[in-house]
Amino acid sequence: MNWITEKLKRFKPKIKNLFRVKIGPEGKLWESCSCGAVLFKQDLKDNLYICNKCDKHHRIEPKERFQVFFDEGQFQEISPMLPAIDDPLLFTDSKSYGMRLRKAREDTGQHDSVMLATGKINNIYVVAGAMNFNFMGGSVGRAAGEAFVAGAEFAYANRLAYVFFSCSGGMRMQESNLSLMQMPRMIVAINSLKQEKLPFISVCLDPTTGGTTASVALLGDVNIAEPKALIAFAGARVIKETVREELPPGFQTAEYLQEKGQIDLIIQRKDLPKVISTLISQLTNKNKVFISDSNKINEQQQSPLGSITNASP
Ligand SMILES: [Zn+2]
User: What is the mean pLDDT of residues 73-100?
Assistant: First the structure.
């Protein structure tokens, strides 16, 4: 180490302070986009977390998702049963699984990666589930599997459509086979809805990968994706190294999968409630709602949880 490095070491914190982003009461004021744009966080929020420069649909947490999805941002959370033990295998890698769970819970305010809610979209009651990528990469363990099944059971009991927003790195390795077992469990839950002719609408967000893609994400009566979402089972690099071929442009994007017939619709975030409510009304032949006139309602439904009084902020 020479004297220049020593000097730099001393000045570095001061230079860092000069350029530090100002932190407001709600965290950072600015958000950067992969296109290079620096966006005022409130503007980004007002635009449903979509970059107004490049149309990138930024990743959002389930609470924000439900706020932009349900009518007037009002919904009621459904609490699924929780597994009795958090860490059945006492799994430890560089940190223990218990520590990782505690950290994820502190950071997100969620108990696990899937959140469930019920509310109205264009006046039709639905159950919706959403994965939080910030909770251990949206991975599915026993708690997330249980939440998914609870959402399906709620839809089954109340004769509602089930909308699920996938955003996941796959199954949770820290729970090993116990997490893999969630795949058939979730598929059985979807099948029970199909037998009752209750719609299951899957929305693939960026990214939807691994066991989530291999189980629930592509089993919707209609499989929807947000623009440019990455949807894959294995990563592109692994595939490229295995097949030893150049991969086509846009490989594993929503647009590529739509071209190949794996995704039915690519819908802008702002249009999701309108399109999904129309699909549900057509699939169930209830509540005639049309894209051209979303206010045209023939039938009113009652909330399965009573009147929605505690609207989430
Ligand atoms: Zn952008």
Answer: 94
